[in-house]
Automatic annotation (TrEMBL):
InterPro entries, alphabetized: DUF3097_C (IPR021447), DUF3097_N (IPR053883)
Domain DUF3097: 22-85, 115-271
The species this protein was found in: Streptomyces orinoci
Superkingdom: Bacteria
Protein name stated in the entry: DUF3097 domain-containing protein
Amino acid sequence: MRSRQYGPDLTPPWKRSAPVPEVPAEVDLVVEEISTGFCGAVIRCEKTAQGPTVTLEDRFGKHRVFPMEPRGFLLEGRVVTLVRPQSPAPAAPRRTASGSLAVPGARARVARAGRIYVEGRHDAELVERVWGDDLRIEGVVVEYLEGIDDLPAIVRSFAPGPDARLGVLVDHLVPGSKESRIAAEVTGEHVLVVGHPFIDVWEAVKPSSLGIAGWPRVPRGQDWKTGVCRALGWPPNTGAAWQRILGAVSSYKDLEPELLGRVEELIDFVTVGN
């Protein structure tokens, strides 16, 4: 009789473990260590006398160090072998779009009772674009009002207090305007209303980021956004125009300082003492 040929590995094929993928242990990768069930984000990899190790941080900020053994981790429910990344991590700390230092592996905080209100959807989308990471870490929710005519009633319904501060960002907040009169009516110890001088939040985006010389002047009595599209030679679709503008914003560097300072002021106000 001829003997079966198993090759260099004498283990019968039906008893061999199926191969598993090797995954680089990149910073922020979330895995589960199989033997303990500890789940966390990768903080760092180190080379030790006993072999390579990986440090994980769970959602409570607890750190654990594990050897990078074959088939030692679960990634999205699949068994994997963690390996050291080929290239070293960047020396410089990563920053968020707002310019703040990023917090590796940070989880969103439970929402605070306090809120930030902005006038419209475009304002909310722009704030999320630049400050979204900071707001989630701080647990601050941004909502939009669709105008501020009803702001006094909204503030009364919200019932601001020491643990539920309210910040409001207003477009075109200049002396003598309707917006300034409403702001003066609701501002108090636990309510802060600030604004920028622009007719619309579109103008808070630097023209250079859009590749235009400047924001056009639109004659009084005309719809401002429609007039801007016409003057710039854009299609008469303000929704598409906004997506074009928002797409040109990647960080705080694309925004005018008159908006940057006001948003930072509101975030500080609603998070003070927490």
